[in-house]
Write a structure and sequence with these properties.
The complex is a heterodimer of chains A (398) and B (172). Chain A contains 17 helices and 7 strands. Chain A has 398 residues and is an alpha/beta fold. The radius of gyration of chain A is 31 Å and the shape is elongated. In chain B, 70% of the residues lie in helices and 0% in strands. Chain B contains 9 helices and no strands. The model of chain B has no long low-confidence stretch (mean pLDDT 92). Chain B has a domain of 74 residues. In chain B, 58% of the residues are buried. The chains are: A alpha/beta (398), B mainly alpha (172). Chains A and B meet through helix 1, helix 2, helix 3, strand 1 and helix 4 of A and helix 1, helix 2, helix 4, helix 5 and helix 6 of B.
Chain lengths: 398, 172
């Protein structure tokens, strides 16, 4: 599941990705004509709307793609970088950039493209933007107040407008297509021409519009991957045979004593209950956090067997089923509740004088297992403490 | 050889969107440009004038947050890619060559001075607005960031507002 960095692709290799992304970016910008300053400023005088067409199409394409990827479940939308909102600096900074655009005829990305193919004005613009950055850095105390004012954090446009993501996507796409239509009219008027679209282009454009709305509709009406998983798990919860994968406490204790390095004991209760009491070597993964991908490394280890437990067996079962979706590890359930396990090993009442051989055997086994487990836990205190997985923060920005 | 025509803007936009989408899918964030300029400029200042940098809050914070310098910076690599990609495209379409583009009414010198001033304004604005047309506006739109979208509106809105006053730079 994306984003692939840093879990699947390392941070070093990420620089190669940067180079490749840049090559694609630069190639398309140049092909679109963004290396020409006259084409760029045409937007502001109405004779050439290429910038708007390319820019809006790109934004809408990527936006629909992000929504689609999130829906299918191949991109974790909670991890992608959302530019934080600082209201005043965004507006004032944007206004200064707009002025720079009309005076200089480029924006930073396009000036680099222009310079790359030998445009001297592009090179001058790149040099100028370096100066501008320096100016800001040196004069920072002057800008600081406005730079930091009204920090709203990573808010989304649709949240601000009080609508769902998908509805906003529909609106933005519609606005984009409408603007393409009207800018065409403006372009024709300013350039004094009466051009009519050839029939094949009309067909092509309308199918592109249709395709965009089709994907959006599909995203809107299908359940997302999370609720699909939920539905399947709930279905299996009522049908599947989960008795055969239940392991009694004695057997698990035996595994702990002999094979502690080959098993994961996973406590799917709340952190509070976990803190109050948990099985030796248990890892706490609360059931509602299980799909977080930081746990994938633990739940999906081919050479390890997972044992799930909770106070409520139904919840343990849910954890078991979810793990089945997340990885290929072998999974089991603890038949006894944790409080039962505690009673069996920590309390372990001595059998009365008229107890049978079997009861005495069980008592002796549990007594030995309890002390073995204690020794193991003490010995491995440091080496087996669950490694805290740092939640990855994706830094971004331009 | 004749210079080839530019690509259909919608098709180019579609491809650009795919590049952006792939970047978000792989790295979790969008594209950028001004950040690379920032990395190079500020690291140079730190190298050239270390004492001065230590006394300048903004540069000091930046170099503390980016201890590896521009050779480990994602955006710097990306912009190197942009140069390569644009150059390849220029070669393919036969557009490479030392050139200067300007409006019909102005001299080459005016154009260069205007480009430097415009660049400086854009550079400054992009620092204040935390990103330029690529990083804030385009990438922001793809992830529906409120900040990114209002930055975009401010850039283009201000462009239109000022266009009239600078028409002599561009029009006949």
């Amino acid at each position: 599941m994306g984003p692939l960095v840093p879990f699947i692709i390392s941070n070093e290799f990420n620089l190669i990705i940067a180079l490749l992304a840049g090559i694609g970016f630069g190639f398309v910008l140049e092909q679109a004509g963004f290396s020409s300053t006259k084409k760029l400023v045409g937007l502001f005088y109405g004779y050439d709307f290429t910038v708007l067409k390319v820019f809006f199409t790109a934004g809408v394409t990527a936006m629909i793609g992000v929504l689609l990827f999130g829906q299918i479940g191949i991109l974790d939308l909670s991890l992608i970088y959302i530019n934080p909102t600082f209201l005043w600096s965004a507006l004032v900074g944007g206004a200064i950039m707009g002025l720079g655009f009309i005076v200089g005829g480029f924006c930073p990305g396009t000036s680099v493209c222009a310079a790359a193919i030998g445009k001297l004005d592009g090179l001058a613009f790149v040099f100028g933007s370096g100066l501008g950055v320096l100016l800001f850095a040196e004069g920072y105390p002057m800008f600081e107040k406005i730079f930091l004012a009204e920090a709203w954090g990573p808010v989304l446009m649709n949240e601000k407008l009080g609508m769902s993501k998908i509805l906003f996507a529909f609106l933005l796409t519609a606005v984009a297509f409408a603007s393409f239509y009207f800018t065409r009219l403006v372009e024709n008027r300013v350039n004094g021409i009466q051009s009519k679209l050839p029939k094949d282009k009309v067909i092509m454009y309308s199918s592109a519009v249709g395709f965009a709305f089709l994907i959006l509709t599909a995203v809107a009406i299908t359940p997302d991957s999370k609720s699909r998983m939920e539905a399947r798990i709930n279905d299996e919860l009522s049908h599947a045979d989960l008795i055969s994968v239940e392991v009694p406490g004695d057997k698990l204790a035996n595994e702990i004593v002999n094979n502690y390095y080959r098993i994961n004991i996973i406590d799917v209760r709340t952190p509070e209950s976990f803190k109050a009491y948990h099985l030796p070597f248990a890892i706490n993964i609360p059931i509602d956090k299980m799909s977080d991908r930081q746990w994938k490394n633990i739940l999906d280890q081919k050479h390890k067997v997972n044992y799930f437990y909770a106070d409520d067996q139904q919840i343990a079962r849910k954890g078991y089923l979810m793990a089945g979706y997340m990885g290929k590890a072998e999974n089991f359930l603890l038949k006894d509740s944790p409080s039962n396990f505690k009673k069996m090993f920590e309390v372990n009442e001595e059998p009365g004088s008229n107890a049978g051989k079997k009861e005495i055997d069980i008592y002796n086994f549990r007594k030995k297992a309890a002390s073995d487990m204690k020794i193991l836990v003490d010995a491995l205190k440091n080496s087996t403490a669950p490694v805290l997985v740092k939640t990855t923060k994706i830094k971004g920005g331009c | 050889m004749k210079t080839q025509k530019y690509m259909n803007p919608y098709l180019a936009g579609f491809f650009l969107g795919l590049v952006l989408l792939a970047t978000i899918y792989v790295t979790g964030r969008g594209l950028g440009a001004s950040g690379a300029v920032k990395s190079v400029v500020l690291s140079t200042v730190v190298k050239v004038a270390p004492e001065h940098s230590a006394n300048t809050t903004y540069i000091k914070t930046y170099s503390e947050e980016h201890p590896h310098g521009p050779l480990q910076d994602w955006l710097v690599f990306e912009v190197i890619g942009v140069i390569i990609g644009a150059f390849i495209s220029g070669v393919i379409s036969n557009r490479v060559g030392i050139k200067l583009e300007r409006g019909p009414k102005i001299t080459n010198r005016t154009r260069i001075v205007a480009a430097i001033i415009g660049g400086a304004l854009f550079g400054l604005g992009s620092q204040l607005g935390r990103g330029c047309t690529s990083g804030a506006a385009l990438s922001g739109m793809a992830v529906m960031s409120f900040g990114g979208i209002i930055t975009m509106l401010a850039i283009f809105g201000s462009g239109y507002a000022f266009a009239y006053f600078f028409r002599n730079l561009w029009l006949k």
